[in-house]
Amino acid sequence: MMNILEKKHAILVTEFDRYVIEHPEFEMKIPRNAQIVLQVEGDQEYNKWSKQLAERQREPDQKVVYIKVKGLKPAKLRLLKPKVAIA
Q1: pTM for this model (two decimals)
Q2: Domain span at 16
């Protein structure tokens, strides 16, 4: 079972991947095969956890790139006009 930091990381990684796909010029700034460390402004607990995770996964001599974000926008609701039907 994923803890809250793992869930947050999964969401951030997904959103980062989407951002890179939509903004290929951003990806050009990142060295090839770099270890990416996501950091969220004001979230010390997540930032520490993310850095430790990256350190465990890092290959010898692999460059490290910190991607700092201000946060996430609220998720858009995808349900259209839900209704409750009690049987």
Answers
A1: 0.80
A2: 4-69
